[in-house]
Amino acid sequence: MRKSKQFISMPVVSLEEGQQMGNVKELVVNPTEKKVVALAVEQKGLFREHKYIPYSKVRSVGGDAVTVNRGASAQKSGSLPEIITLVREKNNINGARIVTENGTLLGIVDDYYVNLASGELVGMEFSGNYLNSVFNGKAFLDIDHVRTIGKDMIVCSDEALEKAVKLDGGLQEKLRGVKESTEHIWESTKKRTKELGSTVNKPLARIKRTKKDEPDPPDVNKPGNIPPRDNPPKEE
User: Fold this and answer.
1) What's the CA gap between 63 and 87, in Å, rounded?
2) 10 Å Cβ neighbour count for 168?
3) 232: pLDDT confidence band, cut at 50, 70 and 90?
4) What does each C-alpha distance from 132 to 67, 127, 209 come to in angstroms?
5) Which of 20, 32, 118, 130 has its CA 20 to 30 A from that of 61?
6) Distance CA 157, CA 143 (A)
7) 94 with 109: CB under 8 angstroms?
8) CA-to-CA distance for 133 and 111, rounded, in angstroms?
9) Res. 81: pLDDT tops 50
10) Domain 2-89's class?
C-alpha cells in the first residue's frame, strides 16, 4: 500500500531494455471501479511526450522505481481511448471535499492509498482543519465507506463519521467520539463562563447596593453645613 503522491516523479524502468523510460507524472483513476487503471509517464527527451502504462502492465512498484517488462508497455494516448476519457474527466481526488449522504462535511482529501498489486484504492486521508468541518486534524476513511468519487467532491456513507479514524501524532480515535468530546468541551466552557460571570457580578451588585444606602457626605460649601470651629482658649 502506498500514497498516491509517493508515485509522482518515480522513474519507470523497462526490464527488457534495461533503461529508464521516464517518470510518473500522474495516476489515472477510474472513479467507478475505485482503482488506478494507468500511470501517465513523462518521457525523457526534449519534447517530454506523455505516454500511458495500463496498471495491469506494471511489473512492480518498488521503493525507488516502477518496473515494467518491456518499453512497449507505454502507449500513446490514441491507442488507449478509455484511459484518455478518464484523463479528460479530471476526477481529482486530492483536494476534493468529503461529504456524507446527509450533508455533513468531513474535510478535504489530502491523499489516497493504493494497493500496489491491484491498483485498487484502499482508503483516503483527509483534513478537517477549517471552518464547518466536524474536527481538526487528519483522519483516515476506508474506501468501503466511499459511495461516489465525483468531479467536485467525494460522497461517503453516513456511517463514515462512525468509521473514520482520526490520526493525530500516532493516536487514533473515532471521529464521532472527537465530535462529541469537542461539543462537550464547548458546552462546559460556555457553562463555566456563565457561572464565572455570575460569581463576579454578585459582589459588584452588593457593593453598588451598599454605596446606594450610605448617606451622602455634607456639602461644606452649602450654608448651614459649615462644621463648627473649636473655641479658642480664653486669656487669663
Assistant:
1) 26
2) 13
3) low
4) 43, 12, 46
5) 32
6) 10
7) yes
8) 18
9) yes
10) alpha beta
Task: Please name the CATH architecture into which domain 97-178 falls.
Answer: Roll (2.30)
| pTM of the complete model beyond 0.85 | no
The pLDDT assigned to 44 comes to: 74
Matching residue, cell 467525494: 154
> In angstroms, rounded to a whole number, what is the distance separating the alpha carbons of residues 236 and 76?
134
- Comparing 2-89 with 97-178, is the CATH topology the same? no
Cell of 103: 450533508
- Cα separation, 177 vs 159, in Å, equals 13
All structural domains of the chain with their residue ranges: 2-89, 97-178
d(CA 2, CA 108): 19
Q: How far apart are the first and last CA of the chain?
A: 118
- Partners of residue 54 on adjacent β-strands: 38
Hey, what amino acid is at 171? L
- Tell me the three cell numbers of residue 117: 498489486
